[in-house]
Write a structure and sequence with these properties.
Length: 344
């Protein structure tokens, strides 16, 4: 089976992740790019040997296109992903699935109605260290999970975005809505759900725009830092920190504390996964290093999406999984804004 892919939005996520991974996949024969700035689409089409659509409708009405990556900014996902599914395309939607529960449900319902694959790009489920950690927890060799802490921070989207300036849409409330919580935090919420086979149900949080300024030199409209306390349905307690102001180096680590020891995930450079047993024994795993903004590697997301389409199998990250993580982020934002504990 040869597939033709369409990509909506030609920012950094397309340039560094989606397009090269489609290009490397043996089952993808061609990529069609659309961006509201046509020169961006043309640049990527030239880079990856693809072609250009001049409108979203042209892209979605093309009967030869089988699959769509929705790499638009957050506020458009519910429009483009819904439309693509109802046009009979399989869809890989960037995270967060949407900005509201109502709009996320529109996408999920469109997927059910169309019978097409809907997958959401929560890429941390695909790393070997997270998959191995989930296996270890599931086997119960460390006993019950009691507590956890997770963090995701880097120097900010203005260093990653396509135009490399403080005018990035990530800093605009009407477009990104959740700031660092929706950019980085939602990944870690999703990976906690995945690792623990559990869901966060109660949250409190503090947030602030501590350091970032926009193109006019004013503090940004969304949070650049947020720190949370979390409780899961099964009673596990945890903390989470998400930041756009980790200026020295990126941190993308998680530690799971169990009855019989500790799991450290992406906590050190040499070993991506460490088990420290309560008798002092240490087991180190050298797996692949995690993607960073400065070190791009194949995420496995596109390969998984293509496999789901080829074999008609359920994706590792469903619309419902993405909605569950979105609900937690909405709860975290409400908790931070109202200084209350919020039930999800």
């Amino acid at each position: 089976m040869e597939l033709k892919a369409g990509i909506i939005g030609c920012g950094s996520i397309t340039k560094f992740r989606h397009a090269p991974e489609y290009k490397a996949n043996p089952y993808v024969k061609h990529i069609v790019f659309y961006d509201r700035n046509p020169e961006r689409a043309e640049a990527l089409a030239a880079m990856f040997g693809g072609s250009v659509a001049l409108s979203v409708d042209e892209l979605l009405d093309d009967p030869t296109i089988d699959i769509i990556s929705d790499c638009s900014s957050n506020e458009f996902h519910h429009i483009y992903s819904t439309k693509a599914l109802l046009k009979g395309k399989h869809v890989l939607c960037e995270k967060p699935i949407s900005l509201t529960i109502e709009d996320a449900n529109k996408i999920i319902e469109a997927g059910k109605k169309s019978g097409k694959i809907l997958m959401v790009d929560h890429n941390q489920r695909f790393t070997r260290a997270h998959q191995k950690a989930r296996e270890i927890i599931e086997r119960g060799e460390l006993g019950r999970v009691l507590t956890f802490k997770t963090t995701f921070g880097h120097k900010g989207p203005e260093h990653w975005g396509i135009n490399k300036t403080n005018s990035t849409w990530f800093f605009k409330k009407e477009r990104s809505r959740f700031g660092v919580a929706g950019d980085l935090g939602i990944h870690k919420v999703d990976v906690i759900h995945y690792l623990l086979k559990d869901q966060i149900e109660q949250v409190s949080a503090f947030q602030g725009a501590l350091d970032k300024v926009d193109e006019n030199g004013l503090p940004i409209e969304v949070c650049d830092n947020i720190v949370c306390s979390l409780k899961t349905v099964q009673g596990r307690l945890g903390t989470a920190s998400f930041s756009w102001t980790y200026y020295g180096e990126e941190d993308n680590s998680t530690i799971i504390y169990c009855e019989k020891g500790i799991l450290k995930i992406y906590h050190g450079d040499e070993y991506q996964l460490q088990i420290i047993y309560n008798n002092g024994e240490i087991v180190n795993y050298q797996l692949e290093s995690i993607q960073t903004n400065d070190h791009q590697t194949n995420s496995g997301v596109i390969d998984e999406f293509i496999d789901c389409v080829r074999f008609n199998k359920a994706p590792l990250v469903s619309g419902e999984d993405a909605l569950a993580s979105l609900k937690v982020i909405l709860g975290i934002m409400e908790a931070a804004e109202t200084n209350t504990v919020v039930m999800i």
